[in-house]
Design brief:
Layout lengths: L10 H49 L2 H7 L2 H6 L5 H4 L6 H26 L11 E2 L5 E2 L4 H37 L7 H9 L3 H27 L5 E3 L2 E3 L12 H8 L3 H34 L6 H13 L2 H11 L11 H10 L14 H28 L4 H9 L4 H29 L2 H7 L5 E4 L2 E4 L4 H11 L5 H25 L1 H4 L6
Length: 515
């Protein structure tokens, strides 16, 4: 049968159609993310109201239980656990635990919480100094005051929750006594904690750890952004020798509109370029490497996979330090790296400053950190992709071959969608991780090559996280408040990609199916 050439699409028509579809898919995805973001913004007032309503529900019935309770229940409003241990030895363990929480909280507030909360407005009055006889006089420490104030507030929220539960337990115990029902003894309470209430028992310590190790530093970091903690206006504010105070939004104005205003957007631009390049180069090269090794014609598959797995086995900082020395360059030939020596002695090429440290070549430095990151990151993608490829049903490929699909069409229609569906969450996680990828930049280039922008030294390969490290750790006069502002800014960016983009991926929307 003759083919009607007028109805057969040419390669250019097919290619244009493919490009249009890709563009429309990207446009629709960006539009979907924008709609989701707008939905989040619109939901903030409702969620805030729901939060306060939920808090109100916690206090619901507090007054009613007091009115209807007997004298033991009423006294438990003053002495936590009294409504339990006053009713006999069976409830002693429960009552003792509640009383222990209250006693511990009172001791903490008397000796640490209340004195520091009283200085929250000023963050201290007297600095550490020497008297006329050169005796050290201890003063206030603004940072310690801030930390203990945040800790006190967190503990108060926790104790308020336990206090409300205490009133419910006391009233429920009273009702059981009035109805003639038996009270649970210590053995039954322990049995409940290890069976039906096992999730509470197991999660109690991790939640406490999250509050003290994650939430406490995070809140303190946010609050530091509203102070002058650091070297501000040519004056040091480092406790205990000096105090720092609240300055409102001054640090935000300084970072975004004054001397750092042009720098932060430049660093942010490179951070996003780096995150995109590092993520997708590792993804695509790792995927194609896995596909090559997985081909039936390739022999010694286990050997080739083991070669790349060895890269993962070596600690990151060792690999990066080795690479920085291997491609090292110095005007002094004795400090030149092995790669330059090989290229010079064998091929007659001159020494090259691969990381642009001495030649201020920003483009070369940025390309090199992406290439080195490709070497250390590609094996992770290869391993994950290998597992996916081994689980793609062979029937799909057989059906596509019968229908006349070639290798490219099979990859576009079967392999790539299958890989993307499974790896999309990991891809998004890797992207957000690369935004905060401190090791690669710090151990390879240290953020350099450095140059001066408006009187401030900034590195061409600096990410937001390495710039923050430079501001707060490496400088002779650390700027902790400005670093806190950059930390908040970085947190908002990573949160956007980690939450908004993650939830808009097909892997989450269709997690129970694959189409």
């Amino acid at each position: 049968m003759a083919t009607d050439k007028s109805t057969t699409p040419t390669w250019k028509q097919y290619n244009r159609s493919w490009i249009v579809k890709l563009f429309l898919a990207i446009w629709n995805y960006i539009g979907g993310v924008g709609i989701m973001l707008w939905g989040v913004i619109k939901a903030i007032p409702k969620k805030t109201l729901a939060l306060f309503v939920g808090i109100g529900h916690c206090f619901q019935g507090l007054w009613t239980r007091f009115i209807r309770g007997d004298w033991r229940t009423k006294l438990s409003y003053l002495i936590m656990g009294f409504g339990c241990f006053s009713r006999g030895p069976k409830q002693f363990l429960k009552g003792f635990l509640l009383l222990f929480v209250q006693a511990l909280f009172v001791v903490f507030m008397v000796f640490l919480g209340a004195p520091n909360l009283a200085m929250l407005g000023t963050l201290g009055k007297d600095t550490e100094h020497y008297d006329d006889d050169y005796n050290l006089i201890k003063g206030d420490n603004s940072l310690t005051i801030l930390i203990f104030c945040v800790m006190s507030i967190i503990l108060m929220m926790f104790v308020i929750y336990v206090y409300i539960k205490n009133t419910k337990i006391a009233y429920d115990t009273q009702k059981r006594v009035e109805e003639g029902k038996p009270l649970s003894n210590a053995k039954q309470q322990l049995s409940y904690a290890l069976n039906d209430g096992y999730h509470i028992t197991v999660l109690a310590l991790p939640v406490l750890g999250i509050l003290l190790i994650t939430v406490l530093p995070l809140v303190c970091n946010i609050l530091v952004a509203f102070t002058n903690y650091g070297y501000v206006a040519n004056e040091p504010h480092y406790p205990p020798a000096q105090l720092f105070t609240w300055t409102g939004l001054d640090a935000f104005r300084f970072v975004f509109s004054q001397s750092y205003g042009s720098i932060i957007w430049r660093v942010l631009g490179w951070t996003l370029v780096w995150a995109v390049a590092a993520t997708f180069s590792n993804f695509f090269f790792g995927m194609f490497l896995a596909m090559m090794i997985n081909k039936k014609s390739i022999k010694l598959k286990a050997f080739w996979r083991t070669c790349f797995i060895l890269v993962i086995a070596v600690p990151d900082f060792i690999t990066l330090l080795m690479m920085s020395r291997f491609f090292g360059y110095s005007p002094e030939s004795t400090l030149t790296g092995p790669f330059n020596i090989i290229m010079r002695d064998i091929f007659g090429l001159k020494n090259t400053d691969w990381f642009g440290t001495y030649t201020n070549n920003a483009l070369r430095a940025r390309v090199m950190v992406i290439v080195v990151n490709l070497w250390r990151g590609m094996p992770f993608t290869m391993l994950a992709t290998t597992g996916i490829l081994l689980n793609i049903p062979e029937d799909l490929y057989e059906s596509s071959r019968i229908d006349g699909a070639g290798p490219v069409r099979r990859f576009i229609s079967i392999t790539f969608p299958y890989i993307m569906f499974v790896m999309a969450p990991q891809l998004i996680t890797t992207f957000t991780g690369n935004i905060n990828n401190f090791n690669v930049i710090y151990f390879l280039t240290g953020g350099g090559p450095d140059h001066n922008v408006g009187g401030t030294v900034i590195g061409d390969t600096d990410l937001l996280i390495t710039w923050l490290y430079s501001l707060t750790i490496e400088r002779p006069q650390p700027e902790y408040n400005n670093g806190a502002v950059i930390g908040i800014f970085t947190f908002l960016i990573t949160s956007f990609f980690a939450l908004i983009v993650f939830n808009s991926s097909k892997s989450i929307k269709q997690e129970d199916t694959f189409k």
